[in-house]
Design a protein that fits this description.
alpha+beta; about 600 residues; single chain; two-stranded antiparallel ribbon; about 10% strand
Length: about 600
Amino acid sequence: MPVYKAPLRDIRFVQNELLDFPAHYAALPGGADATPETVEAILEEGARFCEEVLAPLNRVGDTEGCTWSADGVKTPTGFKEAYRQFVEGGWPSLAHGAEFGGQGLPESLGFTLSELTGEANWAWAMYPGLSHGAMNTLSAHGTPEQQQTYLTKLVSGQWTGTMCLTEPHCGSDLGMLRTRAEPSADGSYRIHGTKIFISAGEHDLAENIVHIVLARLPDAPEGTKGISLFIVPKFLPDSQGEVGTRNAVNCGSIEHKMGIHGNATCVLNFDGATGFLIGPPNKGLNCMFTFMNMARIGTAIQGLAHAEVAFQGAIRYARERLQMRALSGPKAPDKPADPIIVHPDVRRMLLTIKAFAEGNRALLYFAAKQGDIAQRSADEAARAQAETLLAFVTPIAKAFLTETGFEAANLGVQVYGGHGYIAEWGMEQNVRDARIACLYEGTTGIQALDLLGRKVLLTQGESLKAFTKLVHKFCQAHEGNAELAEFVQPLAQLNKEWGEVTLKIGMAAMQDREEVGAAAVDYLMYSGYACLAYFWADIARLAQEKLAAGTAEEGFYRAKLQTARFYYQRILPRTRTHAAAMLAGAAPLMAMAEEEFSLGY
C-alpha cells in the first residue's frame, strides 16, 4: 500500500528560497495576510489533512468507483465525509475574495493546497478543484446578483461547479457545438443539448452543482463567434438564494474509464433546463477562457502530482528491494543481495522522475506567481509583463508537465518491475490516473498549436522574448562564474537557438501553414525542456550559494546540485531530437496519400 508524504521541504524551497514568495506576498496588494507564519500554518494543516484523510481514500476511490442511478451519482466510501471536513476547515474559500466570504489570500497559495490534495487523491481533488474555474468566471463576468447568489455558495464549498463544453460530435472544435439556448419571457433561457466528459458533473458531496455551459442563441452566427455562456444550476435557487426546485439537467450515465475512477465523468442532458446568461451574448468563448486557462494550470498540477507520487513510491521501493549485486562489488555484503538503488539504470529512472517532479514544481509556482501579479499588482507594467509570461507558459505547463508526469508515472512502475503492475503497490493506478491529464483541457497537440501559433508566431515572437529575456539576464549575470559554467554556457546556447528555430518555423509557415502543425508538439516539448533548464540552472546557483555559505542541510542542497547536473547531462539532450524533428518540416507528415495509410491490410 503506497504511503503519501507531503513534500513540504521542497515546496518551501521553491516558494521561499527560489522564488522568494515572502517578499512577493509582502509587495502584493491584498497579500499582507499571507505572512510566513500564516503560510506555514496552511502548509502544515493542509499536509495533515491530505496525508491522514485523503491519501487513505485514494485506493478506495479506484477500487469502488462511482455508482450511477436515476436518483444521482454516489461517490466512493469516505469521499463525502472528507469533503465535509474540507468545507468545515474553510479550505474552499482560501484564495477567493472576502466580499464573497473568502479569505482573500493569493491564488498561488491556493495552488499549493491543490498540489497537496492532488498528490494525495487526484480523483477526490477534482470535485472541489473544478469549482475554482467556475468561481473565477463568475468573478470576472457575472452580474452582482449572480455573484451574490452563486459565488458565495461556491466560495464556501456549500455548492460545487463544473465546466460543460464537450459534446458527442465536438471536442476541442467548439465552433461545432449544437447545444441551444432559447430565450424565456422572464429573461432566463431554456437550455437544450447533451454534454459529455463532464468531470464531477454529478455527485453526492455538495447540495448543489453549478454548471457553466456553452450554448448557442437562436440568432447566433456560425462558428466560435456565435457561442454564449450560461449558468445552469442542478437546483434552482429560491428567493432566499437557497436550494429550490430541481432543474431539468440530469446525468444520463457515467463513463467507464481507464483511471480516476473515484471521480464521476458524466453525460449531462439539458432538457429545457433553466439557464442564465453570463457576459454578453455570443461572447461566451471569451468568458470561458477565464475558466479554461485556470483549468489548464490545474491540469498542470496533475502532471506534477503524478511525478511526485511516482517518486515517493519508487524511492521507497528501491531502497528496500534486494536484487543482484552491484557490478562494482557488493554494497550490502551482510544481505543476500544489494538494494536496487545501487544499480545505474534504477538510478537513471529515479533521477529522471526526481528531475521532472522538482523542476516542474519550480515552473508551476513561477506560473502561479505571475498569476498573482497579473491579478493584483498595482503596477500596470508589472501586470502586463506577468500576463504575457503567464500566457506563454500556460500551454507549456499544461502539456509538458502532463507528458513528463505520465513518463514519470510509467518509470515508477518500471522501478518496481513486475510488482509495479500489481494493484496493491499503487504504481499502476498512478499510470492510469495520469493518462487523462494529457488529454483533457486540450490535448498536447492543441496546447502546442496554441503555444506556437497563437502565443508565439501571432505575437511576432514577443511572448517568447518575455521569457528568453529572463534567461538571457540570468546568463549574463553569471557568465563569469566558473562554478556555474556547466549550466550557464549550454543554457545561453539553447536560449539563442530557441529564437533561431522559432524564426525558421515562422519563415516556413509563410510558405505553407501546415508547417505550424507539423512542428508544434516538438516545439512545445523543446520549450518545456528549455524552461526547466532555466529553473534547474537557478536551482544549481542557489544550491551552490547555500553550500558555500555553510548549511545544516548539506545533503538537501547537494542533491539539488546533482539533480541539476543529471538534468543537463541526461535529459536536456532531448532538445536535439526535438529541434531536428521540428525543422524537418511538414513534408514527411503530409506526403503520404490518405488511402495509402491502410494499404497493408
